[in-house]
Amino acid sequence: MGVGILGGTQNELAVEGEPIYWYSASPAKLLLVRTIIFFVIYTLLSLYYYGPAFKLYDIPRLANISGLTLLNLPFLLSATFLGIALSTVLPRRELATLVILLSSMPIVFGSGFIWPREAIPFPVLLLMQFVPAVPAIKAFVMLNQMGATFHQITPLVTQLILLALFYGILAYLLLEKKFKTIQPAAGKAEY
């Protein structure tokens, strides 16, 4: 949601003709910096969630923190890249919140731990495999609530890595396309 709001705000400013400082960097540099910033922020929040928050609310934790952190790495990368890709196409900042809110319940049900997977139509299940939260939720439940080893969740971690690669490439291509369409008209702003 944060990446989408940032991208939507920048899209609004570009349409209004405001100085667009972020186009003074290459698409690769912009993608790298945004990824690092959001990855670090959400890694810190995740560590709080898996550590002190679990203890504070007496949530049992069967998984060790290293296993949870290793699972978190490809999840945060894939989610960040997906957010950056979506942010390039959102014309307004508030649409990021709407997209996340409207998709959250289908994602929770589609992950299969609240609703039986057998009751979900196959096309929906197939579509849900492209949402990073779905394999991450499955892996987290297996690791933390069912006591699985990291080796047992390797297929889900591999899926997250593939999603990170897919969305990373997609985000780069969309940023590059956006740069080609907006940059010549707006020019480079220097601050």
Automatic annotation (TrEMBL):
Its main location: membrane. Coiled coil: none annotated. One of its GO terms (cellular component) is plasma membrane. Residues 25-173 form the ABC-2 type transporter transmembrane domain. It is a multi-pass membrane protein. The chain crosses the membrane at residues 31-50, 62-89, 95-115, 122-141, 153-175. The keyword Transmembrane applies. GO terms for molecular function: ABC-type transporter activity. It is found in: Cell membrane. This is ABC-2 type transporter transmembrane domain-containing protein. Keywords: Cell membrane, Membrane, Transmembrane, Transmembrane helix.
